[in-house]
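User: Teach me something about this protein's shape.
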Amino acid sequence: MNIKQFWASFEREERRLVTLDPDKIATELHNSLTDVNPGLGVEVARATDSINVVITAFGNRNLFSAAREIATAAPKLAGWTVIALKAPAGFAFRITVDSDPLDAGTIPFEPLRPSDGSEGLGCRIFLSHSLRESGDADRLAKLILLTGLGEEMFATLTKVEVYKLEEAPHDPLYLKDFLKFYDWWHRHALQP
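Assistant: First, the predicted structure itself:
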C-alpha cells in the first residue's frame, strides 16, 4: 500500500471511523499505516469539534520526513485534523502503571552530558523500585519523555537512563521543570 492508497482507504471508511472511539480508530489506521511504513504509528484523540490524528515516528528522527509526508498528504475532511509528530505536552499528566498512578511532573531527573564531550544533552530519570522492576522501565521512561517533550525535542536527547529513586540527587530537578531546563541549556550551556 502506498500513501495515496492509505488515504483513499481512510476516505472510504471515514463515515464509519467517526463513530468509533479513538483507540479503535487508532488501531484501524495503524494497521493500514504499517503497510505504508511499519516504523510509524497513529495516535487519535477526540476534541470538542474534531478528531485529531497524529502520525507518529515514536521519536525516531530517521522517520520524521516519512511521518510529515504522510500527514501532508491527508485529505481535508471536515471534523478531522491530521498532523505529523507528537507535539510537546509538558509533564502535567498522570500515567497509570500496574494500577498505580504516577504524576510525571514529580519524577526526579538529572541532565547528562555526553561522555565523548559532544554538545548533546541526555537525561537520567529516577523511578521507584516497583516501576523499575516492572520490566519496562526503559520503555516507560522513554514514553514519559516522548509525551512531555514531543518527538522533535525527544529526538535531540543523546541518551536516556533509568536509575533507582533512592539514587536521585539530594536536591533533584523534576520533570515538571524539564522544558525550562532544556530552554536554558540551549541558550546558555551551548554558548562558546
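Now, about its shape. The chain has two domains: 3-84, 94-189. The beta strands are 41-46, 51-56, 80-84, 94-97, 100-103, 108-112, 121-127, 157-164, 173-174. If you'd like, I can walk through any region in more detail.
User: That's plenty for now, thanks!
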